[in-house]
Amino acid sequence: MRSRIRLPQPLLAAAALGLAISAITSTTLAQSYPSRPIRLIVAYPPGGGSDTLARIVSPKLAELVGQQIVIDNRPGAAGNIATEIAARAQPDGHTLLWGFSTPLVVNPSLYKNLPFDTDRDFAPVLLLGSAQFLLVVHRSVQANSVQELIALLKSKPGQLPYGSAGTGSPNHLAAELFKGRAGVDMIHVPYKGGGPAALAVLSNEVKILFGSFASSLPHVKTGSLRALAVTGLKRSPEAPDVPTMQELGFPGFDVRAWYGVLAPTGTPKAIVTRLNRELLKILAMPEVQEALKREGLEPSGTTPEEFAAYIKAEKALWAKVIKDAGIKPE
After folding, report:
1. pTM of this prediction?
2. Helix/strand/coil for 74
């Protein structure tokens, strides 16, 4: 039987005093925060989808916290530049990262010697929203279902091209996951963004695309493209007749692009908790939900702990896909 270790009374008193001081300090920080404008680092240029969403959310956050939110666009290196800057910032809640899925969960498996570690260097605050993709084909492709597409691809291995927004982009990885699980081969044609990739499938330059709802659904409605599946676990209200990949025999097939807010590791928990609370209020606003919907995003809203677990699961998933497919950065 183990004997219990008893601390001397002075040590017990000191420990209790330390916990009390820590709790008081944490509460004081939360009450006085923020004491100056908050810098929100965005990894993409002004005018893009990521920047647009940040500019929708930031004024509302400014109202709730009583300080200006300054958006700092730091594009380049597939999001790695902005992510590194945020990782090295003072952990006082006055610098936040408008996080995107690619640099946080894909790039760690795609690039060697990254100057940041997603798990070590960040305190997740909130998963804001995520967007699933539409598996679409050009109207000339002789496939009206995923099963027919698989049969076509198996009859022409390595012959049909598919587009993506670039190596390591979410729609590239969606296609590679599909290839691996369906046992088919396609030719990857990377473009410099989702817009050029959408134009490529419209012009029949490529045959297949896991496209965003914003760029693909209007052309599905006109008949220029044919939608075969969505990549989330539930059907989209924007395309209720299009089945999920899971329904079609791909259990757990859940591919999304997502956005979230993160702080540097070491940011006091009370500040992270307050930011989470204020951002949840913003997500509940009808005009914000409508703005997310226009961008093809479904509002999420999580606790910091739930967001941290989600990031870990995403990293593990894409590490395997990248390794199995032998994907290398361009």
Report:
1. 0.82
2. coil
